[in-house]
Design goal:
The structure is a single chain. The chain has eleven helices and eight strands. The protein has a five-stranded mixed sheet, sandwiched between helices. The chain has a three-stranded antiparallel sheet with strand order 1-2-3, with no helix packed on it. The two termini are 38 Å apart. Helix content is 38%, strand content 15%. β1 and β2 form a beta hairpin. α3 packs across α10 and α4 packs across α5. 34% of the residues are buried. The chain has 314 residues and is α/β, with parallel strands linked by helices. Bound molecules: zinc ion.
């Protein structure tokens, strides 16, 4: 039987170039996504305006504020053409395992720094989008760590120089995975788990985890929580109730190691967010570009200075 995810209709390169091959086509598409009901002045909300042909600025007829198509969005202050941005959107959403900044540099014909910035801005859009949609249903939750493994030494919980992240996969009644949310935490404590739960869970959900005491933070925050006591060490056979979250932890680590030469610990939240975003939309490959672009024009600017700072906990 064909795998429905692998064999779904995507967005082909010829289709892409036919739709978004020119600067004018990209401008028109971006304008439609940003202002689906026509231009709205970001200063005063007025809709009557004129377009200044020389510099492509929109000028409000009431307050005379001038705004560009990209100002106030993740594309703000860009020196890249829109066709380059669109090609980046295409590559980031349509490639099988994502694309690294290094590959993006080669494919777009830009500097590494520019490619890195484009890639991280798009990952930031994915992160903000998914973080705004709390998980629901039956949620398998586990603790996980990034880094350190390849340098030998202690493995698993408590090993030094590892970045802790919480792994959560929501499933339906038939135990099929619906969505995932992997987020970096400061550390595993009841308070951190409770904070995370308040941000990422819907009140109707039920969380299933192993017996690690920090997960009591879920019930302390007021959510339904079932702890499964495995009785063994961290390597004991995982229960069926936690199969999906453990599978996804393995997939994430394999994918990050396979696609990226080096995932910096301080930017791990964005890499996790990219994986989350793509998994959560795995059945909708053909419109992933338009959905991401639609959110991108609603995501505030993220200057390089902010982009390079360490991410806070998710
Ligand atoms: Zn105005």
């Amino acid at each position: 039987m064909k795998n429905v995810i692998q064999f779904q209709k995507g967005f082909s390169l010829p289709d892409f170039f036919e739709k978004y091959g020119t600067e004018d086509q990209c401008r028109e598409a971006l304008s439609d996504w940003r202002w689906p009901n026509g231009f709205v002045c970001p200063e005063c909300g007025h809709t009557h305006h004129c377009l200044l042909k020389t510099n492509q600025l929109y000028q409000c007829n009431r307050c005379h504020h001038q705004t560009s198509l990209t100002s106030g969005t993740i594309f703000a202050d860009t020196k890249l053409s829109l066709t380059t941005w669109f090609l980046a959107l295409f590559l980031v959403t349509q490639t099988r395992n994502g694309i690294s900044a290094l590959e993006l540099k080669r494919m777009l014909g830009v500097s590494y720094c520019t490619a890195w910035s484009v890639k991280h801005k798009l990952m930031q859009v994915m992160k903000e989008r998914d973080d705004s949609q709390p998980l629901t249903g039956i949620i398998q939750m586990d603790d996980a760590y990034w880094g350190g493994e390849r340098h030998g030494g202690k493995r698993g919980r408590g090993a030094p120089h590892k970045v802790p992240f919480v792994a959560a996969v929501s499933t339906n009644e038939e135990h099929h995975p619906i969505a995932m949310r992997f987020s970096k935490l400061k550390h595993f404590s009841k308070a951190e788990i409770a904070r995370w739960a308040d941000k990422h869970l819907k009140s109707s959900c039920t969380v299933v985890s192993d017996g690690l005491s920090c997960f009591d933070g879920v019930s302390e925050a007021g959510y339904k929580h079932v702890a499964i006591v495995t009785g063994g060490g961290p390597d004991s056979v995982k229960h069926e109730e936690l199969t999906w979250v453990n599978t996804m932890i393995g997939n994430v680590k394999r994918s990050l190691n396979g696609t990226y030469h080096n995932v910096s610990e301080k930017h791990l939240p964005r890499y996790l967010a990219e994986f989350n975003y793509r998994f959560n939309r795995r059945f909708k490959l053909d419109n992933m570009l338009t959905r991401l672009a639609y959110v991108a024009v609603r995501t505030p600017p993220m200057p390089l200075r902010l982009l390079t700072m360490a991410e806070q906990s998710g």
